[in-house]
Amino acid sequence: MLREDIAAILVKGASGSLIVSVGSTGLGFLVSVVLARLLKVEEYGVYVYILSWIGVISLVAQLGFRPCLMRFVAQYTAREQWGFARGVLSYTTVVSFIASIVVSAIAAMTAWLLRDRGAISNMSTFLVALPLIPLITLAALRASALKGLKRVVLGAIPDSIVKPTLIASTVLVMAMLLRIDVTAREALIVNISATFIVFLIGTLVLVNVLPKPVRQSRPKYEKRLWWRTSLPMFFSTGMNQILMQADIIMVGAILGAKEAGIYAIASRLAQFTLLGKQAADSITAPMISELYSTEQRTKLHRLVIFSARGVTTFTLLAAGMLWLLGSLILSVFGEGFSAGYAPLTILLVGYLFKAMFASAGFLLSMTGHQDQSAMISGFSAVTNLVLNATLIPIFGLNGAALATAITGVTHSLLLLFYARKLIGIS
To answer: How is 234-245 classified by DSSP, letter by letter?
Structure first.
């Protein structure tokens, strides 16, 4: 694999993923506009606040198998260990499904017991959303398996394109044609239905693209290895989810649902700058595992360099566009959302610095250094919670954005330091 081959593979794979990501973001933007204008600020805040909780809880059910599955599917197929590839697919699916049912039940009981203490506002609406947990869990594993097979675009289409299209069209029909007063509860029911449909579609896609030798082989298991690998990743991915969702959850808990809705829109817009990184990560992660396991260090170094340059360029352009047009875009969501421009600007600066370190996280988790990655994620998550708890009461929405930006940059710098120290690649 020559220098040009690395660039060609990365550009081809990442560009396909980027196209899907841009389409997904556009549809996600449409869904957010539709829901924000129909639900208004308060109800939309309830909707995103509950979805943030569901996102965190679903990470528990995944048990760290999502990055683990992507790593081992890529590794086993590269080595033509078909039985182990089938084994890791079946084992992680069954265990995670059972875990999702258990954590859903625990979440329901906890919400019920705390209903009079206000720990989780809109408790009944929260209970309605719980079926999303097993669906999100299984969908995440399916997407990771497809990434491990380098079928990134196929893996992304159901959740990124089909799902937001179903949600937006259904909610519009309910509001405009059926004259139904759509609230956060109805929007969540629509989300559950759309998630179930795309889960079925995604499962059929995985079955069809799975290599024939995998389907024909008897499953073989390396359970101790998988658990030893997944548990640090479980901690790491859980901490990363806290990094992604803590600001919205804590804004909702401290300032209220209305402010959570405003901040969530600003955060979603800022995350547009991460599309380049996400597209690059989706193709580089399995390649890192494959190149490292076959001891192709020079090619791995070239891969990281190309990825970092491309991601930084995309992020700089996207951040500049959002900084210039941010106020106008926020006004599209309806009255009150323009208050999110200041936190949007802060988040853009943080994401721009984070983009410069591109694949640093996967360099650890995909090369057997998941313990160090977990340690860094844990430190960053605790720092994020402390900063949010300190800055939100003082600076409001800007405090949440500052906490997220500071933690994101610190997290990336620590990952880069350990990647250089342990692997010798930067």
So the answer is: HHHHHHHHHHHH
Q: Which two tokens stand for residue 5?
A: 């081959």
pTM for this predicted structure: 0.76
**CA 258 to CA 45: how far, in whole Å?**
5
Collapsing DSSP states into helix, strand and coil, what is residue 14? helix
Task: Give me the pLDDT at residue 4, please.
Answer: 47
Dist CA 425 CA 342 (whole Å): 36
Q: How far is CA 379 from CA 113, 238, 244, 360, 408, in A?
A: 31, 12, 14, 16, 12
Residue 1's pLDDT band, with cuts at 50, 70 and 90, is very low
What is the number of other CB atoms lying within 10 angstroms of the CB of residue 185? 18
Q: Checking phi first, is residue 80 left (phi over 0); if not, alpha (psi -120 to 50) or beta?
A: left
Q: State the Rg of the chain over Cα.
A: 21
Q: What is the pLDDT of residues 30-69, one digit of tens each?
A: 888 888 888 888 889 889 999 988 988 898 888 888 888 8
Residue type, 144: S
Distance CA 8, CA 414 (A): 30
What's the rounded Cα separation, in Å, for the pair 99 and 60? 8
